[in-house]
Amino acid sequence: xxxxxxxxxxxxxxxxxxxxxxxxxxxxxxxxxxxxxxxxxxxxxxxxxxxxxxxxxxxxxxxxxxxxxxxxxxxxxxxxxxxxxxxxxxxxxxxxxxxxxxxxxxxxxxxxxxxxxxxxxxxxxxxxxxxxxxxxxxxxxxxxxxxxxxxxxxxxxxxxxxxxxxxxxxxxxxxxxxxxxxxxxxxxxxxxxxxxxxxxxxxxxxxxxxxxxxxxxxxxxxxxxxxxxxxxxxxxxxxxxxxxxxxxxxxxxxxxxxxxxxxxxxxxxxxxxxxxxxxxxxxxxxxxxxxxxxxxxxxxxxxxxxxx
Length: 308
What we know:
By secondary structure, the protein is of the alpha+beta class. The chain has 2 domains: 8-257, 3-Layer(bab) Sandwich (Hsp33 domain), CATH 3.55.30.10; 263-306, no CATH class. The chain has helices spanning 28-35, 41-58, 103-107, 115-119, 152-164, 211-218, 223-226, 233-241, 263-271, 275-281, and strands at 8-14, 19-26, 67-73, 79-89, 92-101, 123-130, 139-146, 168-177, 181-191, 200-204, 246-257, 287-292, 297-302. The strands form 2 sheets. Strands 1, 2, 3, 4, 5, 6, 7, 8, 9, 10 and 11 form an 11-stranded mixed beta sheet that branches. It has a two-stranded antiparallel ribbon with strand order 12-13.
């Protein structure tokens, strides 16, 4: 399976319709995230969907050091916590994620459980941290909505409608083929009060349908197109909107797996605790074991080495 059109996000605008959108697809980076865990297929699909959603939203960050965190949580469902994280950089975006779940409760839900079956009465929180520029304060925003709908994509539509009053269409699909890895792709289309100007013109024609029509056209996108690792993202935009008067593609963001656990950073954090508390953290061998849920790695830090 070709990977030429994976691990990237591409933005576009339809200026005369006041529409902006983004298409994203994950391949090897998703495989790398999943390889750190022994998740059942249901959880793999859910985490793949969450990571694509994080890529669609995070790749719109204008600050090269911004961060977006998507979190779905409940206290009574089969899944206790789902986290997907996007960290922007000048080279693109780094993704990481993990899921905490109750294996017994999950087994009761069958092979294709609904979002409500997985979470029960939960909530979706999206947190955006725009790193501060020199001489400015950091900009942090969080929106929280009930976790409703048949999928995370539909829950995200409600998030935009309730938190930002922006009509949105979100579709995400995940495919895992034995021996070929996991592919996940998604599209986000939004209707804005004012048009946006993109950079590269993709196509020109003369008509002007309304938002409802744009939404209907976007919904014709097939799961096989979103998850096809050989299909360029530009081709997806062209197939959907080639009859529009003007469509402009924007900046491309390259995506990668990027857990930020670092031994030096961990040592620095633990070193700030009082010595008596560090002693309580240590095991019989004198190590403080720090577990990274994102990459399923344990970092043993010798407590004695922190006393210097």
